[in-house]
Structures are given as structure tokens and as C-alpha cells.
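Lab channel / #folding
Pinned by the channel admin:
"Please post every new chain as: sequence first, then the C-alpha cells as a reply. Keep commentary short and put observations after the output so the thread stays searchable."

First post following the new format, from NK:
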Amino acid sequence: MEPPILSDAERAEYDEHGYLILRGLFEEAELAAWRARFAAIVDGEVEPAEDMLVMRDVMVAKGAVRPDRPAEAIAKIQDFHNDPVLFEGYVKHPHVLDLAEQFAGPDIKSIHTMLINKPPGVDGRHPLHQDLLYFPFRPENRIVGISTALEPCTRENGCLVVVPGSHRGGLRPHENPDWEWLNFGYFGARGEDGSERIHVEMEPGDTIVFHPLLLHGSGRNRTAGFRRMILVHCASAECRYLEGAQPLAGRRPYLLLRGHSHAGCI
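Reply from TO:
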């Protein structure tokens, strides 16, 4: 596919709704390599890379569900920046960097990477939330999420849901919803019922680009398979920390992908 240079109409759609779907952005051969690596990790065939966090679903962790195979225990994988197949193949892919540059500018850092597994047999819902909650720097319009479907994402297997235009309302208070089963860190925007939500169904290779203030979440997986996606958040290397905020220490470095770093910035 040609480099994903957005048209004026596509950029206007993003600005209005807070997200944009690009169909068939990646070739099947590329998707197959990422799927194989994803499967090898969740099936326990390869050791997780350094700093990678493989997260079990809460129902599995608390013994309410006993999965038949290792992959059915895993909700998501955080921080794959040390996995060469996934980081070099996806995050540094020219299509991803070209997309990120149109929002973040020429100097781009990766600030978060994640693989979403969403196995069958568990609750697995994610409440409506805004990703800016997790990013202690601004401006928010120089941050962008890019996520690609590795397998079909449908309403039946818990596809992404979004609330169009919600990125224009600022960062909302978040809290733990009163659910019986809630995975760690799955905060929800307070008082948001999602009455205007849209289900974003995607085929393998389809990619969503979304604003960090967009309200989004996902439902239960009611199928026997998985709902698998790969995701990176990128930000301008010129973003600055909020007053009183500290650089994120530990296993999640902000890595330069293109351009130059800037003194005093992230």
C-alpha cells in the first residue's frame, strides 16, 4: 500500500470525531509475522522480552476461570519495546511512522506499546476511558494512538467501541466501575454511559488512529476465539511534562522513533 498520507477530508474526519479508520493498511505477510509472534508469547512458546508484562485476566488470576490452554489466560501484553519482531516490525514500520508524523510532527517518540488478546470465557470488558489519563505531558493534540487488527474484530468478540466527538470535552475524572470482574488498571470515565457509542468492526490489517481524549472501551468476547490487536501510542518529542509530574521510571522508556530529541522534554 502507498504511504498513508491523509487527505484533507480524512484529517477533517479525525478532527471532528476523534478517530479515523484506515482499511487494509498492512499486507497479510506482515500481519502473519506479528500474529505468529503474538501467539508464541501467549502460548508460552517463547520467553517474554525484557520489561514485557504479560497480564492474566482477573477471572483467571482469582481462580474463577480455569482456561484449557495458556493463551486463554492472557488479557493483554504491555511494553513490547524489547521484542524485535513486534517493535521493529510494527512500531518502526514506515506506515506507522508516517501516520504518527502527521499528528505528532517530525520528532516522534513511542510512549506505550501493547498487544490486546481478549480471550474467550472471561468477562474481559474495558470501560469507556481516555488514554490521556496515563500520559503526564502535553499538548494532547501532539499525542496519537495507532492500532491495527491482527484478526477480525467484531461486536461478537468485543471490538472497540468509541464515542465520536468526545475528544473535544477535556480529560474527565476516572474511577473503577462497580463491576464484579475488573482487570487491573481498567479505569472508566466517571458518569459516562456511552449512549452515543459506535462499534468499530475491523478486518485484519485495518487500522484505527485515535486522539488520546477519545472515549473508548470494549465489550465481552462471546466467541470461542480471540480478539487480537497491536497498538502503539506516539507523541511529539517536544511534549513537556505537566507541572509537578515526573518522567516515568522503570520499564517503559520513551524511545525516539524519528527525528530528534529535545532538551527538557519527554
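NK: Residues 8-239 form a domain with the Jelly Rolls fold (CATH 2.60.120.620).
TO: also worth noting, The longest strand covers residues 108-116.
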